[in-house]
């Protein structure tokens, strides 16, 4: 009788623990946005030639410079989300703004639109420019 209870307890613990690991894995799969530094961006650009770089600043902000090859889409534009839907969500994407606020919101929108690999540049364009 003692052995039967022990085996049942061990089996119950196994099922509980395996359920927890699946939930953790699902949570990681749902959270696709990764914050990266300017230095990490350089490495990702080398490793992923199909990388999209999305600048979500205003045209006035962009006039002071932007990351080479970045496409621009003003976060404050009323058609912002509609325009993002036109991008290929199978490609990895880095999003940035001036200092990091709007890009975090834009990254969540990209995630909602089905992008599986989204990077948010910490410190935005300011950080990238300071590292050049």
The name of the CATH superfamily of the largest domain reads Rhodanese-like domain
Strand content: 5-15%
Largest sheet: 5 strands, parallel
Number of strands: 5
Low-confidence stretches: 11-28
Structural class estimated from helices and strands: alpha/beta
**Overall number of structural domains:** 2
The number of helical elements comes to 6
Large-scale geometry: globular
* CATH architecture classification of the largest domain: 3-Layer(aba) Sandwich
Helix content: 40-55%
Radius of gyration: 21 Å
At the fold tier of CATH, the topology name of the largest domain is Oxidized Rhodanese, domain 1
The whole-number mean of residue pLDDT values reads 84
- Write down the secondary-structure element order: HEHEHEHEHEH
Distance between the termini: 71 Å
Strand order in the largest sheet: 1-5-4-2-3
For the record, the CATH class of the largest domain is Alpha Beta
Give a verbal description of the structure:
It is a single chain. With 132 residues, the protein is of the alpha/beta class. The chain has two domains: 1-30; 32-130, Rhodanese-like domain (Oxidized Rhodanese, domain 1). Helix content is 51%, strand content 14%. It has six helices and five strands; from the N terminus they run αβαβαβαβαβα. It has helices at residues 2-30, 38-47, 59-62, 80-84, 101-112, 124-130, and strands spanning 33-36, 52-55, 71-72, 93-96, 118-121. It has a five-stranded parallel beta sheet. The protein starts with a helix and ends with a helix.
């Amino acid at each position: 009788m003692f052995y039967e209870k022990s085996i049942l307890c061990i089996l119950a613990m196994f099922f509980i623990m395996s359920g927890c690991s699946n939930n953790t894995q699902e949570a990681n799969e749902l959270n696709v946005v990764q914050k990266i530094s300017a230095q990490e961006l350089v490495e990702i650009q080398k490793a992923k030639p199909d990388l999209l770089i999305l600048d979500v600043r205003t045209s006035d902000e962009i006039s002071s410079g932007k990351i080479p090859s970045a496409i621009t889409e003003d976060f404050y534009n009323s058609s912002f989300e509609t325009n993002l839907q036109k991008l290929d969500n199978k490609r990895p994407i880095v999003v940035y703004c001036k200092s990091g606020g709007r890009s975090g919101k834009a990254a969540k929108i990209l995630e909602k639109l089905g992008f599986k690999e989204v990077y948010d540049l910490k410190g935005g364009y300011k950080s990238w420019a300071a590292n050049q």
